[in-house]
Input
Amino acid sequence: MSTLDWNSLGFNYRKTNTVLTTVYRDGKWSPVKSQNEDKINLTVCSPSYHYGMSCFEGLKAFRGKDGKVRIFRADENAARMKSSCDFLGLPCPTEEMFTEMCIQAVKENLDFLPPYGHNASLYIRPIIITTDPSVNLVPQTDGIMFMVFTFPVGTYSGGQVLQTIKTVVGRDFDRAAPHGSGRFKVCGNYAGAMFAEREAVRMGYGDVLFLDPATHTYIDEFSSANFLGIKGNDYITPLSDSILPSITNKSLCQIAEDIGMNVVRKKFTLDEIEEFDEVGECGTAAVITPVSVVDDKPTLRSNTITKSYAFGKNGECGPVCRKLYKHLTGIQFGLIQDIHDWCIVL
Ligand SMILES: Cc1ncc(COP(=O)(O)O)c(C=O)c1O
Output
């Protein structure tokens, strides 16, 4: 077992024991190779570098109170990677292969799977890139590399769990184009959102909230997490074809239903959140990160705040987000019965 300080991991890459790779050529995947080195040798002309021909996933493995290791909803990540590959025109590993490689990666890196009790986990990053040289703007069908690597993570912010963040609306920036690639986990989406994200952080915010790119009327999502709102007994989350279908959000919707809440998926405007009791962002990395403030401005970098929406008492996480967080992580750490069979138990 590694001797890392499990309480202060944050969300940062560190090298672990092994990286798994396989390459698709002539209609089949090569036998999986496990290597200690976390570097690969690539042509200068990979379309992944030049044209963003790549997609990835993110999921987590947890060490439970019962000592068992659980991987959360790998089948959902496999399905989402398939949709990203189909969009890019790339071959994709089957669900079985995706899952098997995630399991192998976790088993080979158990030294880095945090012990129970630190709100920490092993992040699993499957990624697809192209390894044959090409400058042509055509989908690649050969030399496709699928890699899986892992690293231990704590909270996204590096602080305590359920610490609230302040956010700002990115009125003059879009994360994705209307009818574009926003609903796929393709690498290019992330470069496109980074400028707005960096400017928001420079101004002291934790994240940017993007509006729907077609009309800038409805709430879409944060830079790398979905939006959730709580209003009375309603769990409200945006309906949009330009947001990433979050597996955490899907799970929280199910949990909300399981505990007797109404789940509402709809288009809603920024004004409507004034009525919300709680707001949060959700994702594999963010889990639930409660939002204390959403500032609206004429433009992202403006010094004028048009309207400030505040949530929670004294800037603290509200009771429903706390309850949902406890339920979700309870399933992941084996404290609450996994009635929907979401976890693969190793
Ligand atoms: C843009 C975006 N939205 C939402 C999410 C949350 O998705 P998930 O819960 O599947 O991690 C992520 C993270 O993967 C993301 O990058």
About this structure: The longest strand covers residues 121-130.
